[in-house]
Amino acid sequence: MILADKIIELRKKSGLSQEELAEKMNVSRQSVSKWEGAQSIPDLDKILALSKIFGVSTDYLLKDDFEGEEPVPTDEVEGALRKVSMEEANRFLRVNEKRAPKTAFGVMLCILSPLLLIVLAGLSEYSPNFFGSFAISENFAGGVGVAALLTITACAVIIFLISGQELKDFEYLETDGIDTGYGVSGMVKERRGAYSSRHTKSLILGTVICILSVIPLFLSAITDDDLTAIMGFVLLMAICSVGVYILIKTSMINSGFDMLLEEGKYSRENKSAKKKRRDIMVIYWLIVTAIYIGYVCYARSHFWDDASFYSDWKENGLVIWAAAGVLCPVVSRIVKMVRK
Fold it and tell me: Is the Cα torsion angle 330, 332, 335, 337 positive or negative in sign?
């Protein structure tokens, strides 16, 4: 194993991101990235620093055929690391690249799903004879519009299910620590570097389209016509859906590289924190459920004779769920802050 792969392996086992290792080494993240990509070699004092940080000997770092690896702390992630071979990494990147446009198209359909309902409702109210002798009634607009909305949404859900099933074999990349095989990290970095320019252009294009999508709505306001304003809003949503498609597609493809490199939100530390927050959220909702059941039982025991009053109490108890939903992200954020 060469020095570059040893640094990658030891960094991941220590639960450090490239930024965190760079901070400990008093170097830039780009320097660490070059070390791991075998584009440069750290000098002697950096080798000594790496030896202390990872708890290994300098001989292990410098000698490719040295097998006397010393223990490395792995507190950040529980359990054994899953080995990811070159073949499996390439297969994941291929699946993720094919899956990204499907998922993005599903989101696009969700945005477009209510547009026919909005158009027909606007025509029925402001221009019922838009199609000549055929008048658009409110019932027709509502029936056809809702049917279209449900049909398009159902298609989007099917796309999401199929897309999720394609990535089922790689779910561990989002939750578990991984140990990439020889040359995998270098290959992923090379492919990410080749895609980075396209990713940046896609982000810019998608963002610009979303920003410019409001222009039809502003232009429709000039006419001071309600139907024109509705059509302007519909055009806004249609254009915005294209921008969202581009943003989601490129973000999913780029996230695939982060998963294999365990960087960004898929770092070892974030995976571990996510698992702990998930457990706390399960406890949180169990407590909320217990509070609601206790509330209903109290109302039943004290106000059972007055059916209407009991019914009001029971309905008011739904506020508990609304409040719990609002507080959920707050609790999650507090847990994250306390852990840090």
Answer: negative
